[in-house]
Amino acid sequence: MSAEPGTVRPGGRTARVRAAVLRAAGDVLAEQGFAHLDLADVARRAEVGKTTVYRRWGSVTGLVADLLDDMAEQSLPRAETGSVREDLRANAHLVQRTLADARQGALFRAVIAAATCDARTAESLRRFYEVRVAEWAPCVERGVERGELPVGTDAATVVRAVSAPLYYALLTTGTAPEPADADRAADAALAAARAEAYVVG
């Protein structure tokens, strides 16, 4: 059974082609949005053969899926400060910097918009966030082990609660969050967690 286009992880020259194509796709998304993402244009920007792009990714949604997978793989690892408060603040600041970045912020807005009307993009976006939440959840789990948070606290929910206000502000105001917004988001999630708002079971 052959793999779905955009799911095979290549090496060597093929890896360089993939990197160039994904970079070009990200540029188009950031500059023009999902509606203007075209495989032929991406191939031209990446300076690779159009046939190569069509054969490997097959469709715009296949390309976006691979782009999100790559972004998840390349994202920075979690912080391990020994304090759940500082770990959550580090997570919030990573999200804030990403959304405030001219290219990355525009790229995320484009992908989120596309996910509202395209099922495969929506699934790829969910997978991206599953990877990122799983990366940071151990910070909360360590906080529970150290007695900083109640036993039974749902780690994934706390991590989502940290970033949710930052995304909401960006999407509803069009203004990128500031570092102070990141601190407030982390502290609010921590206060709710300490008040057992995220205890399950």
Automatic annotation (TrEMBL):
The keyword Zinc-finger does not apply. Keywords: DNA-binding, Transcription, Transcription regulation. Residues 15-75 form the HTH tetR-type domain. The keyword Iron-sulfur does not apply. Pfam families: TetR_C_11 (PF16859), TetR_N (PF00440). Residues 38-57 bind DNA. GO terms for molecular function: DNA-binding transcription factor activity; transcription cis-regulatory region binding. This is Transcriptional regulator. It comes from Streptomyces avermitilis.
